[in-house]
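pasting for ref. prot 1 ->
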Amino acid sequence: MTSAAVVLNMFVGSTSIAQQPAKDVQINEARSELRSANYQNALNKVNDILAKKPTNVASWCLKGEIHARLNDVSAALESFGKAIQTNKKSICAVVGKANALGMLKKEDESLGLLHQAVSMTPSSSIDFLARGAAFSGLTQYDKALADYDEALKLDPSFAEAYLNKGMLSWRKGDFAGAIPLFTAAVKLDPNYVEALTNRGAAYSKKGDVESAIADYSKAIQVNPNDATTFYNRGVIYLKQQLSEKAIADFSSALRLQPIYPEAHVNRAVAYTMINKMAVAKRDFQKAVEQDPSGAAGQNGRRGLEMLKNY
């Protein structure tokens, strides 16, 4: 039954673009809240800044990123639009708008803005990081890496730059190389959820199960409201045949995200390990219902076929 397990969702995070150097204490505090996935606290802090400094472009970019994380795309576009109105040369605003349009599946508009961004001239670490994200989005990874390095030269405390460099290593298949970069981000902010989850994924890819579980567990401690992190840790437990722990994690994932066919399939597999076939069949059936034409649904049908005599 282990063949029914769904592939681990390795890549949790998205490339960060709306960073600010540590010189601005208030923005740095808001960024720290964002790294910890405390989105409402981050938003409150940014709104406080904008109430006093309504033309602060970096704050508008940061507000847009927060709204994007909250899946409020219209609010994100409004914030990035405010940033562009304030400063048309803001690369973080252009890239942020591109990412938001991408969330709306407006691929042509998004692509056009990314091309616009890479033609712009950075004037700060924020700009270099944003342009690097644009290069990455266009799969020009060497240029992206060069921009992230420039961002770190200007601001060595840029945790997001290390995160993004780690993601580049990941995309190149260099999981061992990604780990120290994610580690550098975690050293700068021990509660950086994206750095923890991505390092956990890299550890898992290398077969370092204990380190992967430790990173996912720390990420869950910081942010217990992310279904994907529970799911990813559950997949590791399942591969280790720790069925009870796997079931607990898949159940947590489903509590947070009820429509999650992969979690249903993998929880079903875990239930078969402890001979709870009736419950397993219900999970397989749920996977079929939630993903009738996808991989999880196909695995669900296979599971039901294998358990047809129970």
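and prot 2 ->
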Amino acid sequence: MTIRKVGRVAIDLLAGALVLSAIASLTGVPARFSNHASEDGTNTNSGAFFIPQASGAATSTPACEQPTLIGRVVVASVAARTAPSPRAPVIAKFHRMNAQGTPQVVDLRGSAGDRPGGTWFRALLPIRPNGTLGYFPAGSLSVARTSYRIVVDREKLRLTLWNGCHREKVFPIGLGKESTPTPDGDFYIVSLLKPPVAGSVYGNYAYGLSAFSDALTDWAGGGIIGLHGTNDPSSIGDRKSHGCIRLYNWDIEKLVPILPLGTPVEIQ
């Protein structure tokens, strides 16, 4: 291997760690970015290794202070794979723009290196089944961060907006009825749309989430769960929807100016 090639390999290998270092230097805290191969801690590919967080990051930083890393697809098309390797099976392909016409984003969960020297990002994918994870080559994504996150309490019919450890706003919501319940889990915002017709069932604005209904599979878009306004204010504080999360129109208008695509949404 030539010295020039060794240099390129080293640069590629460190790319993911440098991204983390840059973000840590901006925020003063490590990112919300878990570096492990799988949920049970095992490595799914013996040719891969996982890059530790930036050195010097305070390990005692509360989880709520750790920003979420958001990857945005910057190439025409990229495949998400089952492991950090160009030879691993393809899970799904993604483009710069998603089916809703907004930039394609994914929430990042870790970074990994393959033995030839490439760096990969582990991401939560906006596909069925909910919770699917996949790997993207680092060069296919730009990386941003957000300190905002949403927590949906299904029992109390309440949505809380957090900015780091600070609770910014609390809103009453409507959720799915018994036959089409709102799914629980970790998701994120993938799109923001303004309905073209005033007074629609989606109210003034509609966020598309990375979540999919467990009950509906034959709807347009495959049963994507939305977070949106409503033309039926009486549904707030009740369970009448097909799984979507409903807000008063004046409440969702408070979210639209501040939440980026990729904002995490925890439904519990």
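Residues 148 and 259 are 7 Å apart (CA to CA).
The chain is about 10% helix and 35% strand.
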